[in-house]
Amino acid sequence: MVGRGLIVALLVAGCDQLAKLAIIALFAGRPPGSTIRVAPFFNLLMTRNAGITFGLFNNGATANSLLFSLLALIVVAILINWLRRAGTVYLAVAIGLIIGGAAGNVIDRLLEGSVVDFLDFHVGSWHWPAFNIADSAICLGVVAMLLEGLVFHCSTGQTKKPGDLSP
Description:
The chain has 167 residues and is an alpha+beta fold. The chain is built from four helices and four strands; from the N terminus they run αββααββα. 54% of the residues lie in helices and 14% in strands.
């Protein structure tokens, strides 16, 4: 299970970094704050977030970047330990998604002091805070872990297979 989870983590971190490099190249030379409309509800933009999720603590302080990187590395170490005990491929993949997402954002923080965010979904003038592939992987991993714990385990602690909703 460890191998599968780590492969997922490497794929997520790699895809995240490649997408961020593509966005940086795409927006090179464009005025700050410019966007590219992809659909009526979705834009690409180039922004940097020195804070945490949804721009919290985004004051640009270098100490924040180092602190958030250290915290993320501690969480990754805990998740790798959990990955070693994962009993299902589903849980291993979920943990791998979170590890890869955390790693993708830590790489940005350590190299640039902030995280590149570029996905901008909106309804009319209301915009969801910008995010990236790493953030998406973390969210998907957490949802998958919750489903694994709530749906795929019965009250006796026995593991059910995905799709088996019988009591």
